[in-house]
Structures are given as structure tokens and as C-alpha cells.
């Protein structure tokens, strides 16, 4: 079924204008100019076929490259990752069909377990507002209990996509754990279908793009994230205290380290601040997989002396929610430093 696209976009501008700090204010304009992108970069590119090479040195070099990029950048790209172009293309097609339905239907009909989100209801000012919409879906709800309505073909694509992403995430997490002298299966018990998520993202075109973030600057509250994005561009990350734009690669998936891996690795791996900028002319799509533990899982450092006090994922999430409620933004790991 085809819908008018302007009917499918949530009332982002109305919500934005209702917030304090008029976008035309001098302060707001200055803040936006001060975080202009410095340059476009090619993230470290890692060919994962090296992990299955018959040559021991090639396997070791590939694993070392993953660990090095996680320490130096907190971000890297992977090719030959084992997820077919056909599956990725099918997932993108289904995602676009889903977002094209009328906004009122997305917001009220309970699709995918009522997982639809848009804007930022907790924003306390315009600079904390995100010009985007998303379906944030627990893996356990993809196969069981999720309402797909007329989008029955989405279920099969999401099931295959979630399985493939889970395998890739566990492979990469295992390599990073091994690099620090721990078992490859260090996260197998605490990260499973009941704790991990897939997030379908859409960033509508924005006529006030120079004033607006598609997704405000943040770090991810997980072990690691795998991102499949289109070729529009817009992802930026903090490198050497400067914002750099990530150049899209049609053959690669993007991987980034989350807060929990930084804490567990005792700051060996870096959870890097990143954001998405808006585009005035075209919309952008992406899909993220989040490798998360259960809320009761204890996140201790892998070696002593530890930089962070021990905390559970539930305690971490509770602190994040409290900080966002009080200040409009996430504080994250600094709250757990010893």
C-alpha cells in the first residue's frame, strides 16, 4: 500500500517550536556554528574474511585490527561480514514501507509492540531535540507477540536480520574479549534475545537542517552497536575533540563501542560521542543492532585497579534516565567513576 509521504512524517516542527530557546536566537545559532564538522573521514575498514583465513598471521592481524580500531577510534567498518546484500536490501525495502504509513497509524495502532518513537519528549530545549522517528524493537518481540498488521513480510526479514546481526555482534565481542585475555564467550550468558534490540530509524528531510540534529550527540548504553545505513550520510563522531563526518561505504556495516564495553575494558576500548545531522533535500534510513546484557548483569572491569565502581546494567540505565529527566541529556559513565 502506498501513502502520501507528507502524511507519514510526525509533527516534528510543532514539537520543536514548543520548546524553549527559539532556533533563531543568537545563543542557539552560535552553538550550532561552533560544532560544524571539521572534515570527512574514512573509518578504519576491516575485512572480516581474514578471521577465517588458513594463515594464522592473517587471522591474528584481523583480530588485532578490530581491537586497535576499538581503542583508537571506538568506531570501525566491516566488509565480508557474512550478511548478504539480498537480506540487507530486503530489510531496507520493508523498513521504508513501514515508515511510509500515516503518522497517526504509526503512533496509535501498536505496530511492533507499540515500539514507535519520534522526536524527543524529554527535551528541555531545542538543542536537545532529535529530528527523527524510530521503531525500537526487543529481539524477543520480533517472532513472538509483535503486531505486524499488513506488514507480514517484515517479520521474516526482521527474523533473518536479527539472527545475522546477533551472530556478528557475538563474533566481534568475543574477539575484543579475547584481546584482553578473557574467554571468547564472556558475554554469551548475559547478552541474549531477551536483552538485545533492533532499532529502525528514519530521518525525514528537514527544511531547518542548519539548526537541527537528526539525533543529538550521545554515546550508546550497550556493549557494542552494529549499524546498517544508506548512502545519504549524516553520521558524525567525535575524534580528537573535533566532529568528523563518516563517509558512507555501500559495502560496509559500521560498528561502535558502547559504554558498557568501555567500562568492562577499563577504558581500553572507547565509547565515542556521535550524532546524526539532518538533510534538507532527502530523508535518511538506518538500522541499528544493540548488544545489551540483562538489567541484573554486573558490569565489572576486566582488570584491577578498576577505573569504575561496579554497577549493574539496570543501575546504569536508571541513572541515565534520571539525568535525562533532570538535565535533558545523558551523563553516562562519568557518574560511575571511582
UniProtKB/TrEMBL annotation:
Enzyme class of the recorded protein, top EC level: oxidoreductase
GO molecular function, one term: gibberellin 2-beta-dioxygenase activity
GO annotation terms (biological process): gibberellin metabolic process
UniProtKB keywords: Dioxygenase, Iron, Metal-binding, Oxidoreductase
EC annotation from Swiss-Prot or TrEMBL: 1.14.11.13
Domain Fe2OG dioxygenase: start-end pairs: 192-293
Catalytic reaction annotation: gibberellin A1 + 2-oxoglutarate + O2 = gibberellin A8 + succinate + CO2
InterPro entries: DIOX_N, IPNS-like_FE2OG_OXY, IPNS-like_sf, Iron_ascorbate_oxido_reductase, Oxoglu/Fe-dep_dioxygenase_dom
Family of this protein: Belongs to the iron/ascorbate-dependent oxidoreductase family. GA2OX subfamily.
Protein name, UniProt field: gibberellin 2beta-dioxygenase
Amino acid at each position: 500500500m502506498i501513502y502520501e509521504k507528507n502524511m507519514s512524517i510526525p509533527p516534528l516542527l510543532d514539537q520543536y517550536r514548543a520548546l524553549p530557546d527559539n532556533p533563531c536566537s543568537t545563543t542557539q545559532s552560535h552553538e550550532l556554528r561552533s560544532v560544524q564538522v571539521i572534515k570527512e573521514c574514512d573509518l578504519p575498514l576491516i575485512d572480516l574474511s581474514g578471521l577465517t583465513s588458513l594463515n594464522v598471521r592473517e587471522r591474528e592481524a584481523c583480530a588485532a585490527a578490530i581491537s586497535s580500531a576499538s581503542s583508537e577510534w571506538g568506531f570501525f567498518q566491516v566488509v565480508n561480514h557474512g550478511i548478504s546484500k539480498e537480506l540487507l536490501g530486503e530489510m531496507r525495502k520493508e523498513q521504508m514501507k513501514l515508515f511510509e504509513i500515516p503518522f497517526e497509524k504509526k503512533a496509535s495502532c501498536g505496530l511492533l509492540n507499540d515500539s514507535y518513537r519520534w522526536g524527543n519528549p524529554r527535551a528541555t530545549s531545542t538543542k536537545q531535540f532529535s529530528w527523527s522517528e524510530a521503531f525500537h524493537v526487543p529481539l524477543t518481540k520480533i517472532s513472538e507477540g509483535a503486531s505486524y498488521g499488513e506488514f507480514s513480510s517484515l517479520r521474516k526479514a526482521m527474523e533473518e536480520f536479527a539472527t545475522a546481526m546477533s551472530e556478528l555482534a557475538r563474533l566481534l565481542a568475543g574477539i575484543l574479549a579475547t584481546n584482553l585475555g578473557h574467554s571468547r564467550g564472556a558475554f554469551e550468558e548475559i547478552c541474549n534475545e531477551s536483552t538485545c534490540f533492533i532499532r529502525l530509524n528514519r530521518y525525514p528531510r528537514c527544511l531547518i537542517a542548519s539548526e537541527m540534529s537528526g539525533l543529538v550527540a550521545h554515546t550508546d548504553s550497550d556493549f557494542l552497536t552494529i549499524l546498517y545505513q544508506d548512502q545519504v550520510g549524516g553520521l558524525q563522531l567525535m575524534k580528537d575533540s573535533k566532529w568528523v563526518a563518516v563517509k558512507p561505504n555501500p559495502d560496509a556495516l559500521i560498528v561502535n563501542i558502547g559504554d558498557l564495553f568501555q567500562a568492562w575494558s577499563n577504558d581500553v576500548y572507547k565509547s565515542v560521542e556521535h550524532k546524526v545531522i539532518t538533510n534538507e533535500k532527502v530523508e535518511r534510513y538506518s538500522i541499528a543492532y544493540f548488544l545489551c546484557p540483562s538489567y541484573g548483569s554486573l558490569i565489572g572491569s576486566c582488570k584491577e585497579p578498576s577505573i569504575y565502581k561496579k554497577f549493574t546494567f539496570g543501575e546504569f540505565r536508571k541513572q541515565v534516565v534520571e539525568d535525562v529527566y533532570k538535565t535533558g541529556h545523558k551523563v553516562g559513565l562519568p557518574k560511575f567513576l571511582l
